[in-house]
Amino acid sequence: MASSAAAGASARVDLDGNPIKPLTICMIGAGGFIGSHLCEKLMNETQHKILALDVYNDKIKHLLEPDNLPWNGRITFHRLNIKHDSRLEGLIKMSDLTINLAAICTPADYNTRPLDTIYSNFIDALPVVKYCSENNKRLIHFSTCEVYGKTIGSFLPKDSPLRQDPAYYVLKEDESPCIFGSIEKQRWSYACAKQLIERLIYAEGAENGLEFTIVRPFNWIGPRMDFIPGVDGPSEGVPRVLACFSNNLLRGEPLKLVDGGQSQRTFVYIKDAIEAVTLMIENPARANGHIFNVGNPNNEVTVRQLAEMMIKVYSKVSGAQPPETPTIDVSSKEFYGEGYDDSDKRIPDMTIINRQLGWNPKTSLWDLLESTLTYQHRTYAEAIKKVIAKPVAS
Ligand SMILES: NC(=O)c1ccc[n+]([C@@H]2O[C@H](COP(=O)([O-])OP(=O)(O)OC[C@H]3O[C@@H](n4cnc5c(N)ncnc54)[C@H](O)[C@@H]3O)[C@@H](O)[C@H]2O)c1
Ligand SMILES: O=c1ccn([C@@H]2O[C@H](COP(=O)(O)OP(=O)(O)O[C@H]3OC[C@@H](O)[C@H](O)[C@H]3O)[C@@H](O)[C@H]2O)c(=O)[nH]1
Questions:
Q1: What is the pLDDT of residue 68?
Q2: Active site residues
Q3: What is the ipTM of this complex?
Q4: Which is it for the CA torsion 318, 321, 322, 325, positive or negative?
Q5: SS3 of residue 161 by DSSP
Q6: Dihedral sign for Cα atoms in the order 52, 57, 63, 68
Q7: Distance from the CA of 196 to the center of ligand 1, in angstroms?
Q8: Protein residue closest via CA to atom 11 of ligand 1
Q9: What domain of life does the native source organism fall in (predicted)?
Q10: What's the pLDDT score for residue 10?
Q11: Is 366 in a helix, a strand, or coil?
C-alpha cells in the first residue's frame, strides 16, 4: 500500500504539467482543525515532508503514531509556542515553505479576550513573516473572510433594491473595502489584526520581494472543528457555530440563534477547501503574490436555515427525534457579551482562484453536513451520554 501511494505521489504534476518536487513544509498550527486535514492530505497523497508545529497534537495523533505508518518519517511534531521559542527560525530555515495557521479564531474570544486576540493574530505572526522574508522562504499565511467585515449593502435602507445587486455584497479580494464597526465593538479586534498582518505581508512582498500567498477562508467546516464543550473542551467554552449546534443536537437541547439567526454565511466543506490549499502549495508560480478567497458561494444560508438543516440531518444520521423546541432566540449580549457585532453576509467572489488555480468547491451544504454530523454522532454521542448521566457536584 505504501509503495502504490508513493508511486501515485511521484507521478504528481503541477497545473502546467511540470513534475512536483517534494517539499519540506514548516506548518505552524498544524494541530488545529485546518492543519489536521492538510497534514492528512499531504501524507496520503504527496511526498512532501511536514514539520508540524503546535502546542497540541490531539487532532494529528493518528498521523504521528504508530511508527509503521506508510508516511513514517515524513511528518514530525514539534511542540512549541511561537510566542517564545527560539527553535522557530531554525525550523523555518530548514523548510522550503512555511504555512502559518496559528491563531485565536473563535468569535467568543474577540470581545472578551481582545488583547490575546490581537497578539495572537498580529504580534505573534510578525517573527514568522520576518524569518521568511530574511531567509527568502515562501510563506502561505492564513487570514480570514472577516477582513471584509460588513457589506456595503448593509448600510443601505432595508427596502433598497440595490441590496439585491451583487455589486453591493459580493466580496472581491482586489476591490472590496474592509468595513468594521467602532473600536467599542471589540468583535473586530480579530479582523483588524488579520488585516494589518495582511498589509505587512503585502508590503514585505512589494519592498523586500517576499514570496507570499494569503488565504481568506470563508467558513470552512467539517470533522474535528473546534471542540464539544464538557467533552473535549471547557464546559463553559463557546466554539464556532458548527460545534455549538452539534453540541446542542448531541444533548437534545434547542439550538441557540444569536439575534434571531438572521446573519448569512456560505459554508464550504473542509475537504474541498484543502484541495485549494494543496494547489497553492504545488503551484507557486500561480499562487505567489495573490490573496485568495476560498469558499463556496453556492452554499449560502441564514444561521436560522443552517440550524433547521442541521436538525433535519442529525435526525437522519442519529435516528433521534428532533428536540420539541428546536431553536431558541438569544441576544448577542447574553451569548457573547458586550462588544459583539457581526458580519451580515459573506459571498466570496471566485474569479481570482478560478483563474489562477482552476479551483471550484464541489460539496453541497446538505452533503457536507451529513458527513460531518455522522462523524460528530459517532465520535461524541456515547461520551455525551456519560457526561449527562454524571451527577452534578453540589
Ligand atoms: N476554519 C475556518 O473556517 C477559518 C475561517 C477563517 C480563517 N481561518 C484561519 O485559519 C487558521 C486556522 O484555523 P482553524 O480553523 O484550523 O483553527 P484552530 O484553532 O483549529 O487551529 C489553530 C491552531 O493554532 C495553534 N496555535 C495557536 N497559537 C499558537 C502558538 N502561539 N504557538 C503554536 N501554535 C499555536 C492552536 O493550538 C491550534 O491548534 C487561523 O489562522 C484562522 O484565523 C479559519
Ligand atoms: O450557537 C451559536 C453560535 C453562533 N451563532 C451565529 O452563527 C454565525 C456564525 O458564527 P461562527 O462562530 O461560525 O463565526 P463567524 O462566521 O461569525 O466568524 C468566523 O468566521 C471566519 C473565521 O475567521 C473565524 O473562524 C470566525 O471569526 C454568527 O452569526 C453567530 O452569531 C449562533 O447563532 N448560535
A1: 87
A2: 190
A3: 0.99
A4: negative
A5: helix
A6: positive
A7: 17
A8: 101
A9: Eukaryota
A10: 57
A11: helix
